[in-house]
Amino acid sequence: MFGPGSPWRRPAVSRPGWAPVSREERCRVHPRSEVRSQDLLRQWLSPDQTEQYDKYKRFDVVGSDTGTRYRIRRGTTMNIEELTGYGDVTRRWCFAPDGAFATGDVMLAQKIALEGFERDVLALANHDGPRGVRFPSCSFLGMDELGWLVLAFAFFATLVWSFFRFLF
C-alpha cells in the first residue's frame, strides 16, 4: 500500500533548485566511490581544513565575493552553515550537483563553488532563513564582560569616593 511506487513515496523534490533524489538514487553510490571521493576531497583541503575535517567532520571556507565564512559539514543536503564573526550560525544553505554523487564529491563541489563564485551559487541555493543570531558576551551597546567589569568598577569607585567625600 505504501511501497516505493505509491504516490505517497515520491522522489524528494520540495523546492525549485533542488535536485530530485530518490531513495534508489541515494543507494546507487558504491561504497568504494565514497572512499575515493573522501580521498579526492582531502587532496583539495588546506592543512587547516584537513585538521578540522579529521577532528570534527567539517571544515570552514571563505566566500570569494563577500569574505563570509561558511562551514561545510559532512553530508550532501543542508550541510553548509553561514557563520558570523563570532562563529554562530546565521543560516544553513543547500546546493549540490544534479544527480547521485558520493558525499566527498558533493562537499568538494560546494567548497569550490563557495571559494570561486559565491554570489552566483547562493543565488541558486536554498536556505532555511536567518536564525536568531546570538552574540556571545554582548548585550548592551556591544559591551563584553570586560567592558561591564570596568564600568562596574568605575561606578563602585565613584560611589566610594562620593561617600568618603560626603563624610569628610
List the helices and strands and how they pair.
Blueprint: H1 23-27, H2 31-44, H3 47-56, E1 58-62, E2 69-73, E3 80-83, E4 89-94, H4 103-124, E5 126-127, H5 145-167
Poorly predicted sequence stretches spanning 5 or more consecutive residues? 1-18, 20-26
Give the SSE order as H and E letters. Answer: HHHEEEEHEH
Estimate percent helicity.
40-55%
Structural shape: elongated
Structural class: alpha+beta
Q: What is the topology, as strand order, of the major beta sheet?
A: 1-2-3-4-5
Beta content: 5-15%
Biggest sheet features:
5 strands, antiparallel
Given the structure, what is the number of helices?
Answer: 5
Number of structurally distinct domains: 2
Total number of beta strands: 5
The value of Rg in angstroms is 24 Å
Mean pLDDT: 79
The N- and C-terminal alpha carbons lie at a distance of 92 Å
